[in-house]
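Can you make up a protein sequence with its backbone structure tokens?

===
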Amino acid sequence: MRVGIDFSRGEMEHRTGVEWYSYNIVKHLLDLGAEHEIILYSRRGGNPASTVHLRWPFRFGWTQFRLSLEMLLHPPDVLFVPSHILPPITPKRVVTMAHDVAFRRHPEWYSQKQIRVLELGIRRIIKKRAVVLVPTEFVKQELLALYPVMRDLDIHVVHHGIDQKIFTPRDAVVVPPLLYKERVGERWLGEVSSLSSGSYFLFVGRLEHKKNISRIVDAFVEFVGASSPKVGGGGERSGVIDSDVETGLVLVGNPGHGYEEFANKLNHPNIRVIPSVLQEELVVLYQNAIALVFPTLYEGCGMPILEAMACGCPVITSKGGAHQEVAGDSAVFVDSESVGEIARGLRVFLDDESRIEFIQKGYTRAQEFSWDGSARKTMDTLTKEI
């Protein structure tokens, strides 16, 4: 069977959730594809031998026009689109991943242009009767509630995986200096160093309203004020947390929608913002953090939850939804709309026994998710005979 895959998101240099999903699922599908011919449709070129470089000189319109033209001239037996934006022209069988429908639940978090594009994607899925993959049962129920007509579609829950070769505890316990840069030529813009093991809470994700950054910062400030500015509060040194080091909050991510509304809060002396890190650096940040603070307002999956758990980092996250489905019973759950409850969640990990308990439970939970398993389920769906 000829399996065509839109690889335009996975080949992006700067990846966030959807792009990392596309990159990882394609990487592992290629490992499974010996029985089938896999074709990657690329707008950049220079990828594996199975890549078809679909050149397009314009910034916009590649999916709408160039990928559609390829489907018209050389259609595969099945087309897989790892994001949910399908081209207008597809083969009869098309499979896509719908990551979430936050744009319908909370349109205030998106621009009007984003909403139009995302809504068009869902409408096209319905019109073409595409097979839909979702990362959690939560997303499936959201789709059915918001688009009842999708009850007639074939919808499969295929959990995202985690790269166990990358996201795993390392021997090193000292955080190395972290360098980051932005695309202003090749100029280095800053350096973050001297982060002591167990001296900071960590957030990973885009710095935007739906990630609840404002409340996370408010809860951290409340925590610091209530606990004294040093972790542990007293003069006795903890086995995990250094009571002689000021507690920090490290936010790893780039600004997103609504950033300007809370940007001034990030000027707190104990808060550091790192726009971007390498995966290897992120692993060390996870491993040496007191905990991942991830009480976001809406997620389709919440990959940082699994990444942190796999690295031996305990997790504070939101009650209900995809957060609780992914984390199981292996995280501290809080009301994401309560600053006080988030602050109480931070205080849980001042106790070594509680922290070690959640490290162990989280690590066990993370082992249940793998890209190999996700790829096998996805390939079974792609190559299923109609």
